[in-house]
Specification:
The protein has ten helices and 16 strands. Strands 1, 4, 6, 9 and 11 form a five-stranded antiparallel β-sheet that branches. A five-stranded parallel β-sheet has the order 13-12-14-15-16. Helix 5 packs parallel to helix 9 and helix 9 crosses helix 10. The protein is globular, with a radius of gyration of 23 Å. 32% of the residues are buried.
Length: 345
């Protein structure tokens, strides 16, 4: 969710470990509700914040979120009504898990200029009829009405949400913004950066969930410079196929730099570097055996033709700064931020 002005699904920075923790929190909430004698049947929507200590629950809603719903439901391949009915009848456990479309979905909210403070209503709306034949695009009405003559007009702050499916976030984003141009009203306003963070500049991969604390300064630094990233936990030796798939997916989503963190044998960065033409930055993780020297030596001694830029042991902040510096070469805004940072050191 991006301040109610758009959203995208799935969320790249939520890895399987983080998702499992979020699900566990939701399960505990459901059990606690039952323990209090409340036979709750319906939607329980949890709003989470990702922190260095893991996911933290901010709030519950007894409804679907908005505009999150508009980018989650287009990816649902199962019949939602079947699951809602089973839930109401207390038979939800009898159904198979929901089936989801693996594609990405991006939704952009078209609002009345001045929202959420003061804005004009009753503006005539024109929607290109071609959008009706686009299977991958849904235009949700939120703040519209028909006048006495049946003409469509605006009646609220958030007027539409235009959602689009695509094989990548980049393609879904383009479809959504192209469709937004085909919905017209005089005081139309929308954000232009929805899903920007999903189209990651940096793909971060760590070999073990236990290394999360080590890379947290890296994430904080990238956040400070507003650099988008995708965060993953994938072991090179346990799940080589999954790692290869991730490298291909990140490259497809316009990733420009990979950052890899691993300990001991630490061949993760080298494996990534051997499968991509993008720059790879390695963070050797400190170990209990040799204090991280094993990780460092394993990382820096790459064969000819497989370059890996290696920072100090546990030097995740420098890994982020190096990535920022590399991105600054072709980004004047980022370059100015980095110069300010260096000046203030």
């Amino acid at each position: 969710n991006t301040g109610g002005m758009g959203a995208y699904s799935p969320v790249p920075c939520v890895d399987s470990d983080t998702q499992a923790k979020m699900i566990e929190i939701m399960k505990r909430a459901a059990i606690a509700t039952a323990d209090e004698g409340i036979d709750y049947k319906g939607c329980l929507y949890g709003g989470f914040m990702i922190t260095s200590q893991g996911p933290k629950l901010l709030e519950f809603n007894a409804r679907f979120g908005d505009p999150e719903t508009q980018i989650v439901l287009p990816r649902l391949k199962s019949d939602l009504c079947e699951y809602l009915y089973a839930c109401a009848c207390g038979k939800l456990s009898s159904l198979a898990p929901m089936e989801w479309d693996k594609r990405c979905c991006v939704g952009v909210v078209l609002a009345s200029d001045g929202y959420p403070v003061k804005y004009a209503k009753d503006k005539p709306v024109k929607i290109d009829k071609a959008l009706k034949t686009c299977d991958d695009i849904v235009v949700y009405h939120a703040g519209t009405k028909q006048d006495a003559k049946g003409k469509l007009k605006t009646s609220g702050g958030r007027v539409f949400c235009v959602s689009a499916l695509g094989d990548t976030f980049k393609s879904a984003q383009k479809k959504s913004y192209d469709a937004c141009k085909k919905v017209e009203f005089s005081n139309k306003f929308n954000r232009t950066d929805i899903a920007k963070r999903a189209i990651c500049d940096v793909c971060i991969i760590i070999g073990s969930a236990s290394d999360k604390d080590v890379v947290w300064p890296c994430l904080e630094t990238l956040n400070a410079f507003e650099v988008s990233y995708d965060f993953n936990v994938i072991s090179a030796h346990r799940h080589p196929e999954k790692l290869s798939a991730k490298i291909k997916e990140a490259t497809k989503n316009d990733c420009k730099i990979f950052i890899a963190a691993a300990g001991k044998a630490a061949h993760l960065a080298g494996v990534i570097a051997s499968q991509t033409d993008k720059p790879v930055i390695a963070i050797p993780v400190k170990t209990s055996d040799l204090g991280g020297m094993d990780s460092l030596l394993s990382t820096v001694q790459m064969p000819s033709g497989v370059p890996v830029a290696t920072v100090a042991i546990n030097g995740s902040k420098n890994a982020a700064l190096l990535a920022v510096q590399m991105l600054s070469i072709s980004n004047t805004t980022l370059s100015a931020k980095f110069k300010d940072f260096k000046t203030n050191l």
